[in-house]
């Protein structure tokens, strides 16, 4: 005979706090980015935050130095909370990767560098020809 588990009734607050809403991560990400930008603006003494006549500081100035660092720390924490769930499924997949050996790595690196040198040469040649054509037609 199976024993039936008793479930304790949850309070309304616990129910609301544990429910996952559809747009909460997006909202947290946007607010974290905006608050990080605001804290960087305060730390760099950006003039956009004070009125032109400097009669009173709106949010910038030396008095808000600690506030800006705390706001930046909270913003970074918010960004980590938004990005962290995307990396959880990637960790087991990264453990499955078999990396190339030293010989294969060196071979691929040399091939990429040679390709980039050739591509850069073509782009410089086309740039030189286009400038010559434009200068010749303008003058």
Structure commentary:
It is a single chain. By secondary structure, this protein is mainly α. The chain folds into two domains: 22-86; 102-139. Helices cover 67% and strands 0% of the residues. It has five helices and no strands. It has helices at 12-18, 24-43, 65-87, 90-95, 102-138. The chain is flat, with a radius of gyration of 28 Å.
Biggest sheet features: none
Stretches where pLDDT is under 50 for at least 5 consecutive residues are none
The average pLDDT value, as a whole number, equals 82
- Give the quaternary arrangement of the chains: single chain
Beta-strand content bin: under 5%
Task: Give a brief description.
The protein is an all-alpha fold and 139 residues long. The protein is built from five helices and no strands. The protein has two domains: 22-86; 102-139.
């Amino acid at each position: 005979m199976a024993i039936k588990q008793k479930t304790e009734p949850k309070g309304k607050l616990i129910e609301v706090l544990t429910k996952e809403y559809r747009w909460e991560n997006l909202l947290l990400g946007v607010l974290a980015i905006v608050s990080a930008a605001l804290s960087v603006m305060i730390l760099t003494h950006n003039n956009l935050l004070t009125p032109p006549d400097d009669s009173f500081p709106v949010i910038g100035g030396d008095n808000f130095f600690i506030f800006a660092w705390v706001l930046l720390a909270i913003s970074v924490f918010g960004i980590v909370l938004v990005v962290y769930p995307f990396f959880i499924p990637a960790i087991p997949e990264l453990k499955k990767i078999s990396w190339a050996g030293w010989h294969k790595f060196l071979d691929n690196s040399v091939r990429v560098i040679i390709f980039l040198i050739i591509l850069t040469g073509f782009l410089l040649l086309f740039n030189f020809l286009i400038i010559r054509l434009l200068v010749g037609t303008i003058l």
